[in-house]
Write a structure and sequence with these properties.
seven-stranded mixed sheet; 622 residues; globular; binds thiamine diphosphate; 19 strands
Length: 622
């Protein structure tokens, strides 16, 4: 048995984290954190990944957590912790398990402040300032001042983190790290909530109401969300869809919860900001909608606000069927019971139907414009291009090549990337795998990349609820460290990139093979313009341009020279048309491990926007 002498609070914390599978910790040190990092490296295999600032440290830890199940970020008190807090808020809102270690001044320094009014660097006169701030954005926050209590405080924090799947905050006084403590005892695990008799009764009522609603309205469609991933319910969701035959869409946040090769997959539904074809089949062909673990955030519901009587929603441990609400129903119980009830009532495969086929049939009466001269279908006034006959051909129409000299647009670029992903897929159907993961930032990047076809589960990531711009570039560091066998493809607007571009330094330093596509719409906060004054994007709209959306133009591709060097190279490209994109994709496809990240400045016209957000312009011009 190891004696207490060999165990310190720093070793205890690092050992506990290692036992939970953590192998990298991200952040920016300070003298208060130093002792922890030295002991951690001496006593465990966890390695420190220093990032250029706390924001990138927080996003990296968040990405690592999404990839592996737990992320850790370490910072120094005050200056570091307050810089970090935005990123932790994102993890809190989006239910990402993160441990924040905030190394604070020593007990003696705090006593000096009390006795003499002596403020040590980074201290605020308010001794609880950091703690109180973090209480707002974590599931558990505590200050460790004494090694006797440290072990139980650490264990409570870690168990809370795993159980709630949310960030926890450990503020640890510098002197405590080296203080002796007991060795770890027992295991740290998540504690699932029990299902009680009362839960069972409410579940039965919720299921009865749901089945009645489906019987009455007919033609259901599932809408799978992020909780399917967070609560590890992908198999149960897939089983429900397959056995009952009900087709499914996902939210943006839930994108890639299942393989998008699944024959029941109908696209990403994101309210008015969906592709118009997806919106039609989801809202008009399907007669009732069943959200499972899908949050009604603004980005998931793009421009729509209230759900009606034709909606059933199960999430946040409650179920609503139209206006009736059934509390304390676990999503896992609901999905399993719904499957049983639907099979009993309607039989296996009863709901199997290609809603796109039906849409094409019903839409026949509508005029079909053709692109002048070519006879090819052109978008109608809702942006629908009738170049498909069923679900499979609609999804296939989202990928393809373009004429070589054609300038890039958001949609034509993404269509070609879709083709690239398809060309690089191994295997078929649900067994298909891809060497890539996609990390998409806010704005037009997200709205265009929502239509990338991800053939493998959990290969698409975005911070689509909190939506802090710049997330993707910082998070890529952690995704890559957590999933070294995948290559991150990052899609980010130029404004978002300007927030966190220093993360490129970590990408090169770690010899990551990330590909960062910066959409360069001539230095413009496009989505902001679209939200405030969409007329800018309509005919003769130049006059509506808001001055505050204009960015300072950078030569983005040249940053490869700044952040790379001979030992840790990085390549930069500017592309303007499909010919250049094709050449670039050859380079990306053959990029060798160790040849470093690739930064691509993707030049698109300033007034271009993804088709999915076209409803804004149409509404503004009405
Ligand atoms: C940290 C943060 N600051 C500000 C915002 C507000 N905001 C949302 S989108 C956006 C503009 C993004 O511009 P860009 O990255 O160029 O992409 P585009 O909109 O052109 O696609 C801004 C400033 C935000 N979401 N997050």
């Amino acid at each position: 048995m190891t004696t207490n002498k060999n165990w310190t609070v720093a070793r205890y914390l690092a050992t506990r984290l290692e036992s939970l599978g953590v192998s990298k910790i991200f952040g920016v040190p300070g003298n208060h954190l130093g002792p922890f990092l030295s002991i951690m490296q001496e006593t465990t295999n966890i390695r420190w990944v220093g990032t250029t600032n706390e924001i990138n440290g927080g996003y990296a830890a968040d990405g690592y957590a999404r990839a592996t199940g737990l992320g850790v970020v370490g910072v120094t008190y005050g200056v570091g912790a307050f810089s970090l807090i935005n990123t932790v808020s994102g993890a809190f809102v989006e239910r990402v398990p993160l441990v924040v270690i905030n190394a604070s001044p020593t007990n003696e320094q705090w006593l000096n402040y009390q006795a003499l009014g002596l403020l040590t660097s980074h201290m605020s006169p308010n001794q609880e300032s950091n703690l109180n701030a973090y209480r707002q954005v974590t599931a558990f926050a505590t200050v460790i001042t004494n090694s006797n209590l440290a072990t139980s405080q650490i264990d409570t924090a870690l168990e809370t983190c795993l159980t709630e799947g949310q960030p926890v905050y450990l503020e640890i006084r510098q002197n405590v790290f080296e203080s002796p403590c007991d060795p770890p005892q027992g295991k740290i695990e998540a504690r699932p909530r029990p299902t009680t008799e009362r839960n069972g009764t409410i579940l039965e009522s919720a299921i009865e109401a749901t089945v009645n609603r489906i019987r009455k309205l007919g033609k259901p469609i599932l809408w799978g969300g992020v909780e399917i991933d967070r609560f590890k319910l992908a198999d149960a969701f897939q089983d429900l869809s397959e056995k009952t035959g009900i087709g499914f869409c996902t939210t943006i946040m839930g994108k890639s919860i299942l393989s998008e090769n699944h024959p029941n997959f109908m696209g990403v539904y994101n309210g008015k900001a969906s592709l118009p074809e997806v919106r039609k089949i989801f809202n008009e062909v399907a007669q009732c909608r069943i959200g499972l673990g899908a949050w009604t955030t603004s980005k998931n519901l793009g421009g729509t606000q209230d759900l009606g009587e034709d909606w059933i929603k199960a999430d946040h441990e409650g179920v609503s069927v139209g206006a009736s609400y059934f509390p304390e129903v676990k999503l896992s119980d609901f999905i399993a019971a719904l499957k049983e009830a639907l099979l009993k009532e309607f039989g296996e495969g009863h709901f199997k139907q290609d809603y796109y086929q039906q849409f094409v049939k019903e839409y026949k009466g509508a005029p079909r414009p053709t692109t002048r001269g070519t006879g090819a279908p052109a978008p109608d006034k809702e942006g629908i291009v009738m170049n498909f006959v069923d679900r499979a051909s609609f999804l296939a129409s989202l990928s393809g090549h373009s004429s070589k000299s054609m300038p890039l647009t958001y949609d034509s670029f993404i269509k070609r990337i879709n083709q690239f992903l398809e060309d690089n897929t191994t295997g078929t159907g649900l067994d298909a795998t891809t060497p890539y993961i996609v990390i998409s930032d806010a704005g037009f990047s997200l709205l265009s990349s929502q239509n990338l076809k991800m053939v493998e589960r959990n290969t698409f990531h975005s911070q689509a609820s909190w939506l802090a711009i710049g997330y993707s570039v910082g998070a890529a560091t952690g995704f890559k460290e957590g999933q070294p066998d995948k290559t991150p493809l990052v899609f980010v607007g130029d404004g978002s990139f300007q927030e966190t571009c220093q993360a490129l330094s970590s990408h090169t330093r770690l010899k990551q093979d990330n590909v960062i596509f910066v959409f360069n719409n001539n230095g413009f906060y496009g989505i902001e313009q679209m939200l405030v004054e969409p007329k800018y994007y309509g005919k003769g709209g130049e006059q509506y341009k808001d001055f505050y959306n204009v960015l300072h133009p950078w030569q983005y591709a040249k940053l490869a020279e700044v952040f790379g060097n001979e030992e840790t190279p990085m390549q930069g490209f500017v592309i303007k048309n499909h010919d250049e994109l094709n050449d670039l994709l050859e380079v990306i496809g053959s990029n060798k491990r160790g040849s470093g990240p690739i930064l691509v400045q993707v030049v698109v016209p300033q007034r271009d926007y993804p088709k999915a957000i076209g409803y804004k312009v149409r509404e503004a011009e009405k």
